[in-house]
Amino acid sequence: MLGPQVWSSVRQGLSRGLSRNVRGWASGEGKKVDIAGIYPPVTTPFTATAEVDYGKLEENLHKLGTLPFRGFVVQGSNGEFPFLTSSERLEVVSRVRQAMPKNRLLLAGSGCESTQATVEMTVSMAQVGADAAMVVTPCYYRGRMSSAALIHHYTKVADLSPIPVVLYSVPANTGLDLPVDAVFTLSQHPNIVGMKDSGGDVTRIGLIVHKTRKQDFQVLAGSAGFLMASYALGAVGGVCALANVLGAQVCQLERLCLTGQWEDAQKLQHRLIEPNAAVTRRFGIPGLKKTMDWFGYYGGPCRAPLQELSPAEEEALRMDFTSNGWL
Amino acid sequence: MLGPQVWSSVRQGLSRGLSRNVRGWASGEGKKVDIAGIYPPVTTPFTATAEVDYGKLEENLHKLGTLPFRGFVVQGSNGEFPFLTSSERLEVVSRVRQAMPKNRLLLAGSGCESTQATVEMTVSMAQVGADAAMVVTPCYYRGRMSSAALIHHYTKVADLSPIPVVLYSVPANTGLDLPVDAVFTLSQHPNIVGMKDSGGDVTRIGLIVHKTRKQDFQVLAGSAGFLMASYALGAVGGVCALANVLGAQVCQLERLCLTGQWEDAQKLQHRLIEPNAAVTRRFGIPGLKKTMDWFGYYGGPCRAPLQELSPAEEEALRMDFTSNGWL
Amino acid sequence: MLGPQVWSSVRQGLSRGLSRNVRGWASGEGKKVDIAGIYPPVTTPFTATAEVDYGKLEENLHKLGTLPFRGFVVQGSNGEFPFLTSSERLEVVSRVRQAMPKNRLLLAGSGCESTQATVEMTVSMAQVGADAAMVVTPCYYRGRMSSAALIHHYTKVADLSPIPVVLYSVPANTGLDLPVDAVFTLSQHPNIVGMKDSGGDVTRIGLIVHKTRKQDFQVLAGSAGFLMASYALGAVGGVCALANVLGAQVCQLERLCLTGQWEDAQKLQHRLIEPNAAVTRRFGIPGLKKTMDWFGYYGGPCRAPLQELSPAEEEALRMDFTSNGWL
Amino acid sequence: MLGPQVWSSVRQGLSRGLSRNVRGWASGEGKKVDIAGIYPPVTTPFTATAEVDYGKLEENLHKLGTLPFRGFVVQGSNGEFPFLTSSERLEVVSRVRQAMPKNRLLLAGSGCESTQATVEMTVSMAQVGADAAMVVTPCYYRGRMSSAALIHHYTKVADLSPIPVVLYSVPANTGLDLPVDAVFTLSQHPNIVGMKDSGGDVTRIGLIVHKTRKQDFQVLAGSAGFLMASYALGAVGGVCALANVLGAQVCQLERLCLTGQWEDAQKLQHRLIEPNAAVTRRFGIPGLKKTMDWFGYYGGPCRAPLQELSPAEEEALRMDFTSNGWL
């Protein structure tokens, strides 16, 4: 397997040829960040008494840092961000910034329900070291989250953010798809650099890539289950829960796609679908954390109300890995 | 129309005969609160710069206080609670406590995503004057919110709450129905006194009333659109957004149902369905606040990302009131 | 319990006062049929080799005929009509006409996917004795079944039908709700007399009754689970699968509602919710037929692909009846 | 562009290497048909008086026959099969058989709601010339269409069919996904050769290919919008409404995928997404037929209740083609 450095140059040569640097648009130089690549959405470790375990977080990062990831997503849905206080959210970003290799990107989930709170969280996350902000759609009032409302929300956040903004659509959690027409409008904002789409509809991903082809706008697949298909349609990477446990394999799938080895990519992709479903839709974060325990990371408990897996669930989870040759 | 005092005795005589007093279970006397009656879910007024306008809040309460409501719900979905900071949430409850008549109930929405945060918010709300806590289902991880998880969550909250707990299921916002079997289990908890169900499925409401008939457990309809049907099936009241603008009429519907005047109740209910849909499902809080402006209350703007109605929407909203004879 | 004759006069005095006679609009006299009352949607008995068992059909009708039903629905969803050939559909209607008491109404389900086929089936059913046609929404192309398309469909059918037409909306089977605005438009057609709504949203039922109050238009609840609530909102009867097994009880619920005995109605309604769910949503026609076997009717097998209940399902089905005191 | 003959050999060399011949399994030789390739789902032309226009059908076939399709699907959802009588269904198949080139495959949609009717239709279609039967999931009783029921249904049909069976899952029409576990079980039946999946979830398509890799089982994408992604995941072709109007382009996309020209494939795929959505999900068969008129085929009217496009819809339809350079 390639090391991170070599990997980085392969990636640069193969991705959409964007020459973005890792710096904010607000710096005045108008340069954007290139977000192409694979990211694990880092989980938040808790102690037995449900305190954030920053030591375990750092240990996980040290291990993950040896893999050729483009960077790390902190406080995506897998980070249990809705269970963290504002200060915990910032402290987690700060600790990850310090624990991770310097040459990687840190995408921090800064979404809140209100526009104002999202702006404030985004600014704060920039201050503690985030390279870009990944902003989930507000969703509690989904019946009123029209394209116009979402465009207004994201425009305001992007206007005021010192770091580039990545749109984040995750209908399994929010019950809401960021509409394609809203994505198209937002892609023209100079401080919005891309999107993470976790919905799994690759026709939609293809359409977004197509409609935004004249903008500097990149699309990341939100899950390893449709990573290869997303590459085929023009996505440039993925934020994959599965990369927390099968990181090398997800990065290998990236490499096979970028180098056009589609047959091998297909075989590998096939073997990742069930494990990926197991740590996402099927068993959620409790499943992901349990699997992390198996693969040498610290998973540990979730905060309530998320519950531990039952023995039967744990057995089914294991089967999804063993039947595909990963355990 | 009956005044509040007379009204209260009518209600006591007619509701399910529960002799609950307004005091917490945790007081050691084992007495529960009787929540039967009508509640407006109070909106949170904002200034033009999106600050909470506590003065307007108090003015609204003074006007609403002249109507024969059983009490007030603060920070239900119509209170824009996901847009408020923790301290704003508490301050709003505190101000409402002071502004409202003494002989009414204050139900405060204390739900958060994590169990721990919900417990803390519930305790704090009790300290600033809430009579009972209305706890919405956590929902971001809805795929893992099994009956077991929800039972665990609510049990923990009820165990630690100094005030009685009211379950709150609102699938239009949460994408999640609190399962009937979980409601049944939770109805046996000594500190859980009832439920607000906003889903609109009155068969379900009837089943919940039926299954919990041996517990001291009361069900409130979550919307005026199915208030009469809910009374027919055994609900004891309602938390109705529409009561913020047509409060007298909603209370009259209550009286007609409680006194068995079903024909008149039907006629009144019919005329409330469209206005109710307009200020809830169809136009949301922006619609409700706009209507409040028309009816002599302070509505004002919502916090972003909620947007003002378009002129066409405002026209349609008005039509839903005029065509039923309310404007 | 009242006998059918007495019952009929009670019903006439209590229902919405419509003086409709049982004759078609096309007779030129402009008189409509009054469809108020309770109907079992008759099941289609099959032999062990999946032939229609007309003898058992007649036996069931003879037993059902002793109950104070307003009439019978043939080839609603519970009649397995999608599994019958056109000639079987007509033969079943013909046999029911002969086996049922003369003074009852025969509503025959004549819906097909195409407008033309629906017209032809409606005409044929009139010829073999149907009093009115109950026409389900076409649904295979539900993405194109706009209000305009459905209005066109039903208008054509009603124009050409020699017997009155009853609209039929059953989203659990069709994935489609007949929109309220379409119902309102269609309620003005002289040959459309009412609607069976099986969706269970009584707010919607109330709105339909309200919007069509100036037309001769009657609404029937499509299931016993929300029958009482539907009466409360202005429906005039119900087509209830449960009436195939607890027919006397469903008729008693009708009587309690029509005579304003709401407390007793509520108690009875409560005990019918679970059995009703068991023979509809939960276990479908196989559950209904199994229960018919228990209650002295002929249930028998369904046509494939409908499968028999598993032993565990049968046990759960029985529990839904025993726990409510019906077995 | 390659001609049909050359094309066929390219396809044989590139598809999954299955050496299936075009003959039924029931012939006793145990050889299966290879269904790899592109198929237009042929529309059924109607005259102004809604009669089947067999002449126009043949004309369309003659034109379509010049393109390098693997064959033709008759009476998929785009064939308006639910609007045809049984004898029309058979006559259409018969006419297509005669009008189409001899060396192509004829897949005939033979699904009905009952198992017995499906068996009979399948046998009849074989008699009038179908090479394989494409059997849609029964759906009216979707609440009871468990894996067990669907396995029973398809097994019976495949047991009794003289021609190979292709499973057909189209949730937009049926409200039902054929479950992956049922597909896996059915893939082991000697007379079930593959599946058309129109759901658009390519993760699911990948999983099906993966789980059935040890069987002679082929998957066809059910729409051009996700054709490239489906090839990437292991599908061997597609049944694409869009191929009725942009047939050469869809076949070119096939060729680019089969020859590993993924970059060009991506560009072409991108330009097909909006036109494809326009003639399927967005405007349905009326949109497809209108477009056929534009592209030199006979589209004509649909049977009622399907309605013509409004002028505004027609304009939007045209825009979806012009904005992508196809008109």
Automatic annotation (TrEMBL), chains A, B, C, D:
<dbReference type="InterPro" id="IPR020625">
    <property type="entry name" value="Schiff_base-form_aldolases_AS"/>
</dbReference>
<feature type="active site" description="Schiff-base intermediate with substrate">
    <location>
        <position position="196"/>
    </location>
</feature>
<comment type="subunit">
    <text>Homotetramer.</text>
</comment>
<dbReference type="InterPro" id="IPR013785">
    <property type="entry name" value="Aldolase_TIM"/>
</dbReference>
<dbReference type="Pfam" id="PF00701">
    <property type="entry name" value="DHDPS"/>
</dbReference>
<dbReference type="GO" id="GO:0008840">
    <property type="term" value="F:4-hydroxy-tetrahydrodipicolinate synthase activity"/>
</dbReference>
<keyword id="KW-0456">Lyase</keyword>
<comment type="similarity">
    <text>Belongs to the DapA family.</text>
</comment>
<comment type="function">
    <text>Catalyzes the final step in the metabolic pathway of hydroxyproline.</text>
</comment>
<protein>
    <recommendedName>
        <fullName>4-hydroxy-2-oxoglutarate aldolase, mitochondrial</fullName>
        <ecNumber>4.1.3.16</ecNumber>
    </recommendedName>
</protein>
<keyword id="KW-0704">Schiff base</keyword>
<keyword id="KW-0809">Transit peptide</keyword>
<dbReference type="GO" id="GO:0008700">
    <property type="term" value="F:(R,S)-4-hydroxy-2-oxoglutarate aldolase activity"/>
</dbReference>
<dbReference type="GO" id="GO:0005739">
    <property type="term" value="C:mitochondrion"/>
</dbReference>
<feature type="active site" description="Proton donor/acceptor">
    <location>
        <position position="168"/>
    </location>
</feature>
<dbReference type="GO" id="GO:0009436">
    <property type="term" value="P:glyoxylate catabolic process"/>
</dbReference>
<keyword id="KW-0496">Mitochondrion</keyword>
<feature type="binding site">
    <location>
        <position position="239"/>
    </location>
    <ligand>
        <name>pyruvate</name>
    </ligand>
</feature>
<dbReference type="InterPro" id="IPR002220">
    <property type="entry name" value="DapA-like"/>
</dbReference>
